[in-house]
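Weekly modeling sync, notes
Attendees: AB, CL, MP (scribe)

Item 1: holo prediction request
CL wants a bound-state model with flavin-adenine dinucleotide before deciding which constructs to order. AB pointed out that an apo prediction alone won't tell us much about the pocket. Agreed to run with the ligand included and paste results into these notes for async review.

Input as submitted:
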Amino acid sequence: MKNPDPHDFLALEQLMDEEERMVARTVRELVTEQLAPQLGDWFEKGEFPRELATEFGKLGMLGMHLSGYGCAGMSAVSYGSACLELEAGDSGLRSFVSVQGSLAMFPIWKFGSEEQKQEWLPRMAAGEVIGCFGLTEPDSGSDPSSMRTVARQDGDDWILNGTKMWITNGSIADMAIIWARTDEGIRGFIVDTTTPGFTANTVRHKMSLRASVTSELVLDNVRLPADAVLPGVTGMKGPLSCLNEARFGILFGAVGAARNCYETALDYTMSRTQFGRSLASFQLTQDKLADMLIRVNRAHLLALHLGKLKDAGELTPAQISFGKKDNVAQALHVAREARAMLGANGITLEYPIIRHMNNLESVYTYEGTNEVHTLVLGQSITGMGAFR
Ligand code: FAD
Protein backbone atom coordinates (compact mmCIF):
# COMPACT_ATOMS: atom_id res chain seq x y z
CA MET A 1 0.00 0.00 0.00
CA LYS A 2 1.12 3.54 -0.78
CA ASN A 3 2.02 5.84 2.12
CA PRO A 4 -0.84 8.36 2.65
CA ASP A 5 -0.24 11.81 1.14
CA PRO A 6 0.79 14.10 4.06
CA HIS A 7 -1.20 16.90 2.36
CA ASP A 8 -4.44 14.86 2.11
CA PHE A 9 -3.80 12.15 4.68
CA LEU A 10 -7.33 10.76 4.86
CA ALA A 11 -7.88 11.02 1.09
CA LEU A 12 -10.77 13.40 1.78
CA GLU A 13 -10.85 14.46 -1.87
CA GLN A 14 -12.64 11.15 -2.43
CA LEU A 15 -15.61 12.51 -0.46
CA MET A 16 -16.01 15.34 -2.99
CA ASP A 17 -17.56 15.09 -6.44
CA GLU A 18 -15.79 16.25 -9.60
CA GLU A 19 -17.30 19.74 -9.51
CA GLU A 20 -16.36 20.22 -5.84
CA ARG A 21 -12.78 19.09 -6.52
CA MET A 22 -12.61 21.42 -9.52
CA VAL A 23 -13.79 24.41 -7.43
CA ALA A 24 -11.21 23.63 -4.72
CA ARG A 25 -8.41 23.29 -7.30
CA THR A 26 -9.34 26.52 -9.10
CA VAL A 27 -9.48 28.60 -5.92
CA ARG A 28 -6.30 26.99 -4.58
CA GLU A 29 -4.47 27.94 -7.80
CA LEU A 30 -5.76 31.51 -7.64
CA VAL A 31 -4.61 31.83 -4.02
CA THR A 32 -1.21 30.16 -4.28
CA GLU A 33 -0.19 31.51 -7.69
CA GLN A 34 -1.66 35.00 -7.78
CA LEU A 35 -2.61 36.19 -4.30
CA ALA A 36 -0.19 34.52 -1.86
CA PRO A 37 2.85 36.65 -2.78
CA GLN A 38 0.92 39.82 -1.86
CA LEU A 39 -0.96 38.70 1.24
CA GLY A 40 1.76 39.69 3.72
CA ASP A 41 1.92 43.17 2.18
CA TRP A 42 -1.84 43.68 2.26
CA PHE A 43 -1.86 42.56 5.89
CA GLU A 44 1.02 44.90 6.79
CA LYS A 45 -0.52 47.88 4.98
CA GLY A 46 -3.99 47.07 6.32
CA GLU A 47 -5.72 47.00 2.96
CA PHE A 48 -8.12 44.89 0.94
CA PRO A 49 -7.74 45.63 -2.79
CA ARG A 50 -11.19 46.41 -4.14
CA GLU A 51 -10.41 44.91 -7.54
CA LEU A 52 -10.44 41.46 -5.92
CA ALA A 53 -14.24 41.77 -5.85
CA THR A 54 -14.58 41.60 -9.64
CA GLU A 55 -11.89 38.90 -9.80
CA PHE A 56 -13.90 36.76 -7.36
CA GLY A 57 -17.07 37.64 -9.29
CA LYS A 58 -15.62 36.34 -12.56
CA LEU A 59 -14.89 33.01 -10.86
CA GLY A 60 -18.49 32.77 -9.62
CA MET A 61 -17.43 32.94 -5.97
CA LEU A 62 -19.88 35.63 -4.84
CA GLY A 63 -23.22 34.19 -3.76
CA MET A 64 -21.82 30.91 -5.09
CA HIS A 65 -24.36 28.70 -3.29
CA LEU A 66 -27.35 30.83 -4.34
CA SER A 67 -29.27 30.14 -7.53
CA GLY A 68 -30.51 32.51 -10.24
CA TYR A 69 -29.79 36.25 -10.60
CA GLY A 70 -26.26 35.66 -11.90
CA CYS A 71 -25.27 33.39 -8.98
CA ALA A 72 -23.39 30.15 -9.62
CA GLY A 73 -25.90 27.85 -7.85
CA MET A 74 -23.25 25.39 -6.65
CA SER A 75 -23.41 22.89 -3.80
CA ALA A 76 -22.75 23.80 -0.18
CA VAL A 77 -19.63 21.62 -0.28
CA SER A 78 -18.34 23.60 -3.31
CA TYR A 79 -19.00 26.88 -1.50
CA GLY A 80 -17.33 25.59 1.67
CA SER A 81 -14.34 24.29 -0.28
CA ALA A 82 -13.88 27.70 -1.92
CA CYS A 83 -13.95 29.27 1.57
CA LEU A 84 -11.37 26.73 2.76
CA GLU A 85 -8.97 27.51 -0.07
CA LEU A 86 -9.42 31.28 0.31
CA GLU A 87 -8.73 31.15 4.04
CA ALA A 88 -5.64 29.00 3.41
CA GLY A 89 -4.45 32.31 1.91
CA ASP A 90 -5.89 34.74 4.44
CA SER A 91 -9.04 34.97 6.58
CA GLY A 92 -9.58 38.43 5.07
CA LEU A 93 -10.19 36.94 1.63
CA ARG A 94 -12.71 34.48 3.00
CA SER A 95 -14.35 37.16 5.14
CA PHE A 96 -14.94 39.28 2.04
CA VAL A 97 -16.59 36.41 0.19
CA SER A 98 -18.62 35.33 3.25
CA VAL A 99 -19.95 38.81 3.88
CA GLN A 100 -20.77 39.49 0.25
CA GLY A 101 -22.46 36.15 -0.44
CA SER A 102 -23.89 35.01 2.88
CA LEU A 103 -24.57 38.25 4.73
CA ALA A 104 -25.38 40.83 2.04
CA MET A 105 -26.70 38.80 -0.92
CA PHE A 106 -28.40 35.97 1.02
CA PRO A 107 -30.94 38.22 2.87
CA ILE A 108 -32.00 39.80 -0.46
CA TRP A 109 -32.16 36.37 -2.12
CA LYS A 110 -34.15 34.87 0.77
CA PHE A 111 -36.28 37.78 2.04
CA GLY A 112 -36.20 40.37 -0.76
CA SER A 113 -38.88 41.33 -3.29
CA GLU A 114 -38.46 40.32 -6.93
CA GLU A 115 -37.52 43.95 -7.76
CA GLN A 116 -34.86 44.01 -5.02
CA LYS A 117 -33.38 40.73 -6.28
CA GLN A 118 -33.25 41.98 -9.88
CA GLU A 119 -31.78 45.29 -8.85
CA TRP A 120 -28.98 44.08 -6.58
CA LEU A 121 -28.07 40.40 -6.96
CA PRO A 122 -26.62 40.25 -10.51
CA ARG A 123 -24.29 43.22 -9.87
CA MET A 124 -23.27 41.82 -6.48
CA ALA A 125 -22.58 38.37 -7.97
CA ALA A 126 -20.31 40.08 -10.52
CA GLY A 127 -18.50 42.00 -7.76
CA GLU A 128 -19.54 45.35 -9.27
CA VAL A 129 -21.48 46.23 -6.13
CA ILE A 130 -19.97 45.47 -2.70
CA GLY A 131 -22.25 44.83 0.26
CA CYS A 132 -21.89 44.80 4.03
CA PHE A 133 -24.03 43.57 6.93
CA GLY A 134 -24.75 45.81 9.89
CA LEU A 135 -25.98 43.96 12.94
CA THR A 136 -23.43 44.53 15.75
CA GLU A 137 -23.46 47.84 17.64
CA PRO A 138 -21.05 49.38 20.15
CA ASP A 139 -23.25 48.18 23.06
CA SER A 140 -24.85 45.16 21.41
CA GLY A 141 -22.62 42.25 20.35
CA SER A 142 -23.42 38.71 21.49
CA ASP A 143 -26.95 39.87 22.29
CA PRO A 144 -27.99 41.56 19.03
CA SER A 145 -31.64 41.65 20.11
CA SER A 146 -30.62 44.52 22.42
CA MET A 147 -29.80 46.72 19.39
CA ARG A 148 -30.67 50.42 19.55
CA THR A 149 -30.70 51.29 15.85
CA VAL A 150 -34.23 52.30 15.07
CA ALA A 151 -36.30 52.72 11.91
CA ARG A 152 -39.46 54.80 12.13
CA GLN A 153 -42.00 55.48 9.41
CA ASP A 154 -42.53 59.00 8.08
CA GLY A 155 -45.34 58.86 5.52
CA ASP A 156 -44.20 56.17 3.07
CA ASP A 157 -40.53 56.66 3.95
CA TRP A 158 -38.38 55.09 6.65
CA ILE A 159 -35.97 57.14 8.79
CA LEU A 160 -33.02 55.22 10.27
CA ASN A 161 -30.91 56.31 13.24
CA GLY A 162 -28.15 54.42 15.05
CA THR A 163 -24.56 53.19 15.00
CA LYS A 164 -23.24 49.85 13.81
CA MET A 165 -19.77 48.65 14.81
CA TRP A 166 -17.16 46.19 13.51
CA ILE A 167 -18.75 45.99 10.08
CA THR A 168 -16.69 44.06 7.50
CA ASN A 169 -16.41 45.85 4.12
CA GLY A 170 -18.22 48.89 5.63
CA SER A 171 -16.04 51.65 4.13
CA ILE A 172 -15.79 50.03 0.68
CA ALA A 173 -19.44 48.99 0.47
CA ASP A 174 -21.90 50.38 -2.09
CA MET A 175 -24.82 49.01 -0.12
CA ALA A 176 -25.46 47.91 3.45
CA ILE A 177 -28.00 45.53 4.92
CA ILE A 178 -28.95 47.32 8.13
CA TRP A 179 -30.95 45.59 10.85
CA ALA A 180 -33.06 48.00 12.89
CA ARG A 181 -35.78 48.02 15.50
CA THR A 182 -39.27 48.95 14.21
CA ASP A 183 -42.73 48.98 15.81
CA GLU A 184 -43.31 45.46 14.41
CA GLY A 185 -39.92 44.04 15.48
CA ILE A 186 -36.46 43.87 13.92
CA ARG A 187 -36.40 44.42 10.15
CA GLY A 188 -33.73 44.50 7.46
CA PHE A 189 -33.16 47.51 5.19
CA ILE A 190 -31.18 47.88 1.98
CA VAL A 191 -29.24 51.11 2.32
CA ASP A 192 -27.40 52.70 -0.61
CA THR A 193 -24.24 53.99 1.10
CA THR A 194 -24.42 57.29 -0.82
CA THR A 195 -27.69 58.16 0.96
CA PRO A 196 -27.35 61.44 2.95
CA GLY A 197 -26.80 60.77 6.66
CA PHE A 198 -24.88 57.52 6.10
CA THR A 199 -21.19 57.58 7.13
CA ALA A 200 -18.63 54.78 7.32
CA ASN A 201 -15.50 55.23 9.45
CA THR A 202 -12.70 52.69 9.07
CA VAL A 203 -11.53 50.98 12.28
CA ARG A 204 -7.76 51.53 12.62
CA HIS A 205 -5.06 49.84 14.74
CA LYS A 206 -6.41 46.31 14.27
CA MET A 207 -3.85 43.56 14.85
CA SER A 208 -6.07 40.93 13.24
CA LEU A 209 -7.86 40.62 9.88
CA ARG A 210 -5.77 43.49 8.58
CA ALA A 211 -6.32 42.49 4.93
CA SER A 212 -10.04 43.13 5.47
CA VAL A 213 -11.85 46.43 5.91
CA THR A 214 -13.69 46.84 9.24
CA SER A 215 -15.82 49.92 9.90
CA GLU A 216 -18.20 51.83 12.11
CA LEU A 217 -21.42 52.83 10.33
CA VAL A 218 -23.27 55.92 11.50
CA LEU A 219 -26.91 56.40 10.44
CA ASP A 220 -28.05 59.94 11.11
CA ASN A 221 -31.63 60.46 9.94
CA VAL A 222 -31.09 58.29 6.86
CA ARG A 223 -34.26 58.60 4.79
CA LEU A 224 -35.17 55.52 2.74
CA PRO A 225 -38.08 54.84 0.38
CA ALA A 226 -40.79 52.35 1.40
CA ASP A 227 -39.32 49.66 -0.85
CA ALA A 228 -35.95 49.65 1.00
CA VAL A 229 -37.27 47.24 3.61
CA LEU A 230 -36.87 43.47 3.08
CA PRO A 231 -40.52 42.36 2.91
CA GLY A 232 -40.00 38.68 3.70
CA VAL A 233 -38.93 38.68 7.36
CA THR A 234 -39.57 40.33 10.71
CA GLY A 235 -37.71 39.49 13.93
CA MET A 236 -34.32 38.06 14.86
CA LYS A 237 -34.72 35.06 12.58
CA GLY A 238 -33.80 37.43 9.70
CA PRO A 239 -30.23 38.24 10.78
CA LEU A 240 -29.76 34.85 12.48
CA SER A 241 -30.52 32.93 9.30
CA CYS A 242 -27.86 35.02 7.48
CA LEU A 243 -25.38 34.30 10.27
CA ASN A 244 -26.00 30.57 9.88
CA GLU A 245 -25.03 30.83 6.21
CA ALA A 246 -21.85 32.73 7.03
CA ARG A 247 -20.90 30.46 9.94
CA PHE A 248 -21.09 27.54 7.55
CA GLY A 249 -18.42 29.21 5.38
CA ILE A 250 -16.28 29.81 8.47
CA LEU A 251 -16.31 26.18 9.59
CA PHE A 252 -14.74 25.29 6.24
CA GLY A 253 -12.52 28.38 6.08
CA ALA A 254 -10.85 27.70 9.42
CA VAL A 255 -9.66 24.34 8.07
CA GLY A 256 -7.80 26.21 5.31
CA ALA A 257 -5.95 28.46 7.75
CA ALA A 258 -5.06 25.41 9.88
CA ARG A 259 -3.91 23.41 6.85
CA ASN A 260 -1.64 26.22 5.69
CA CYS A 261 -0.08 26.49 9.18
CA TYR A 262 0.47 22.70 9.36
CA GLU A 263 1.98 22.56 5.84
CA THR A 264 4.26 25.52 6.56
CA ALA A 265 5.45 23.93 9.83
CA LEU A 266 6.00 20.59 8.07
CA ASP A 267 8.10 22.16 5.29
CA TYR A 268 10.03 24.32 7.73
CA THR A 269 10.92 21.58 10.19
CA MET A 270 11.87 19.21 7.36
CA SER A 271 14.43 21.65 6.02
CA ARG A 272 15.76 23.38 9.15
CA THR A 273 18.69 21.76 10.93
CA GLN A 274 19.60 22.18 14.60
CA PHE A 275 21.87 19.97 16.71
CA GLY A 276 23.05 18.38 13.44
CA ARG A 277 19.59 16.98 12.50
CA SER A 278 16.46 18.23 10.81
CA LEU A 279 13.94 19.59 13.31
CA ALA A 280 11.36 17.18 11.89
CA SER A 281 13.45 14.20 13.01
CA PHE A 282 13.01 14.98 16.73
CA GLN A 283 10.28 13.15 18.61
CA LEU A 284 8.99 16.36 20.18
CA THR A 285 8.51 17.88 16.71
CA GLN A 286 6.86 14.77 15.32
CA ASP A 287 4.46 14.76 18.25
CA LYS A 288 3.41 18.28 17.28
CA LEU A 289 3.19 17.49 13.55
CA ALA A 290 1.09 14.38 14.16
CA ASP A 291 -1.20 16.34 16.48
CA MET A 292 -1.64 19.08 13.85
CA LEU A 293 -2.24 16.52 11.09
CA ILE A 294 -5.02 14.93 13.14
CA ARG A 295 -6.67 18.24 14.01
CA VAL A 296 -6.58 19.51 10.41
CA ASN A 297 -7.97 16.31 8.89
CA ARG A 298 -10.60 15.83 11.60
CA ALA A 299 -11.79 19.41 11.09
CA HIS A 300 -11.95 18.90 7.31
CA LEU A 301 -13.85 15.64 7.73
CA LEU A 302 -16.35 17.41 10.00
CA ALA A 303 -16.74 20.27 7.50
CA LEU A 304 -17.41 17.90 4.60
CA HIS A 305 -19.94 15.95 6.65
CA LEU A 306 -21.79 19.14 7.64
CA GLY A 307 -21.60 20.28 4.00
CA LYS A 308 -23.29 17.09 2.85
CA LEU A 309 -26.00 17.54 5.50
CA LYS A 310 -26.52 21.10 4.22
CA ASP A 311 -26.79 19.89 0.63
CA ALA A 312 -29.38 17.36 1.80
CA GLY A 313 -31.32 20.20 3.50
CA GLU A 314 -30.78 18.62 6.92
CA LEU A 315 -28.19 20.84 8.61
CA THR A 316 -29.42 22.48 11.83
CA PRO A 317 -28.15 25.73 13.41
CA ALA A 318 -26.83 23.79 16.44
CA GLN A 319 -24.79 21.54 14.13
CA ILE A 320 -23.35 24.66 12.49
CA SER A 321 -22.42 25.91 15.97
CA PHE A 322 -20.66 22.57 16.61
CA GLY A 323 -18.61 23.06 13.44
CA LYS A 324 -17.87 26.77 13.90
CA LYS A 325 -16.86 26.39 17.54
CA ASP A 326 -14.66 23.35 17.16
CA ASN A 327 -13.03 24.02 13.80
CA VAL A 328 -12.02 27.56 14.74
CA ALA A 329 -10.68 26.37 18.11
CA GLN A 330 -8.69 23.61 16.38
CA ALA A 331 -7.34 26.04 13.81
CA LEU A 332 -6.23 28.49 16.50
CA HIS A 333 -4.48 25.66 18.37
CA VAL A 334 -2.69 24.53 15.20
CA ALA A 335 -1.68 28.12 14.33
CA ARG A 336 -0.22 28.77 17.79
CA GLU A 337 1.69 25.47 17.74
CA ALA A 338 3.02 26.19 14.22
CA ARG A 339 4.06 29.68 15.28
CA ALA A 340 6.34 28.25 17.97
CA MET A 341 7.75 25.57 15.65
CA LEU A 342 9.12 28.22 13.32
CA GLY A 343 11.00 29.84 16.19
CA ALA A 344 11.84 33.49 15.49
CA ASN A 345 10.72 33.10 11.88
CA GLY A 346 7.26 32.37 13.25
CA ILE A 347 6.75 36.02 14.15
CA THR A 348 7.49 37.59 10.75
CA LEU A 349 5.21 38.17 7.79
CA GLU A 350 7.77 36.32 5.64
CA TYR A 351 5.77 33.26 6.69
CA PRO A 352 1.97 33.09 6.84
CA ILE A 353 1.67 31.72 10.40
CA ILE A 354 1.51 34.87 12.52
CA ARG A 355 -1.02 36.31 10.06
CA HIS A 356 -3.25 33.25 10.39
CA MET A 357 -2.80 33.19 14.16
CA ASN A 358 -3.81 36.82 14.56
CA ASN A 359 -6.64 36.51 12.01
CA LEU A 360 -8.10 33.51 13.79
CA GLU A 361 -8.52 35.59 16.96
CA SER A 362 -11.19 37.56 15.07
CA VAL A 363 -12.70 34.42 13.59
CA TYR A 364 -12.95 33.02 17.15
CA THR A 365 -14.97 36.11 18.14
CA TYR A 366 -17.11 37.05 15.15
CA GLU A 367 -20.22 35.28 13.85
CA GLY A 368 -20.98 34.18 17.41
CA THR A 369 -18.12 33.96 19.91
CA ASN A 370 -16.80 30.61 21.08
CA GLU A 371 -18.90 31.01 24.24
CA VAL A 372 -22.09 31.82 22.32
CA HIS A 373 -21.71 28.60 20.30
CA THR A 374 -21.07 26.68 23.53
CA LEU A 375 -24.36 28.04 24.87
CA VAL A 376 -26.15 27.04 21.65
CA LEU A 377 -24.85 23.49 22.05
CA GLY A 378 -25.73 23.46 25.75
CA GLN A 379 -29.27 24.55 24.97
CA SER A 380 -29.57 21.99 22.19
CA ILE A 381 -28.56 19.01 24.34
CA THR A 382 -30.30 20.03 27.58
CA GLY A 383 -33.30 21.96 26.33
CA MET A 384 -32.37 24.73 28.76
CA GLY A 385 -31.08 28.13 27.59
CA ALA A 386 -28.22 29.58 29.68
CA PHE A 387 -27.80 32.80 27.70
CA ARG A 388 -29.21 35.10 30.35
P1 FAD B 1 -19.40 40.81 23.67
O1 FAD B 1 -20.73 40.31 23.23
O2 FAD B 1 -19.36 42.02 24.51
O3 FAD B 1 -18.65 39.61 24.39
C1 FAD B 1 -17.42 39.81 25.14
C2 FAD B 1 -17.06 38.46 25.78
O4 FAD B 1 -18.14 38.05 26.67
C3 FAD B 1 -16.90 37.33 24.76
O5 FAD B 1 -15.89 36.46 25.17
C4 FAD B 1 -18.25 36.61 24.83
O6 FAD B 1 -18.17 35.25 24.44
C5 FAD B 1 -18.59 36.75 26.30
N1 FAD B 1 -20.02 36.62 26.53
C6 FAD B 1 -21.03 37.37 26.02
N2 FAD B 1 -22.22 36.92 26.44
C7 FAD B 1 -21.98 35.84 27.24
C8 FAD B 1 -22.79 34.93 27.98
N3 FAD B 1 -24.14 35.00 27.95
N4 FAD B 1 -22.17 33.95 28.69
C9 FAD B 1 -20.83 33.85 28.69
N5 FAD B 1 -19.99 34.67 28.02
C10 FAD B 1 -20.56 35.66 27.30
N6 FAD B 1 -20.63 42.30 13.11
C11 FAD B 1 -21.54 42.59 12.13
O7 FAD B 1 -22.70 42.84 12.40
N7 FAD B 1 -21.15 42.61 10.82
C12 FAD B 1 -19.87 42.35 10.43
O8 FAD B 1 -19.56 42.36 9.23
C13 FAD B 1 -18.89 42.06 11.44
N8 FAD B 1 -17.58 41.87 11.11
C14 FAD B 1 -16.64 41.74 12.11
C15 FAD B 1 -15.27 41.74 11.79
C16 FAD B 1 -14.31 41.67 12.79
C17 FAD B 1 -12.86 41.70 12.44
C18 FAD B 1 -14.71 41.55 14.15
C19 FAD B 1 -13.68 41.44 15.23
C20 FAD B 1 -16.05 41.57 14.47
C21 FAD B 1 -17.03 41.69 13.48
N9 FAD B 1 -18.39 41.79 13.79
C22 FAD B 1 -19.32 42.05 12.80
C23 FAD B 1 -18.83 41.82 15.19
C24 FAD B 1 -18.84 40.48 15.88
O9 FAD B 1 -19.86 39.67 15.37
C25 FAD B 1 -18.92 40.71 17.39
O10 FAD B 1 -17.66 41.20 17.79
C26 FAD B 1 -19.31 39.47 18.19
O11 FAD B 1 -20.65 39.13 17.97
C27 FAD B 1 -19.06 39.64 19.70
O12 FAD B 1 -19.64 40.81 20.16
P2 FAD B 1 -18.77 41.82 21.07
O13 FAD B 1 -17.44 42.04 20.38
O14 FAD B 1 -19.61 42.99 21.36
O15 FAD B 1 -18.44 41.02 22.39
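Recorded for review: The longest helix spans residues 237-271.
Action items: CL to compare against the apo run; MP to circulate these notes.
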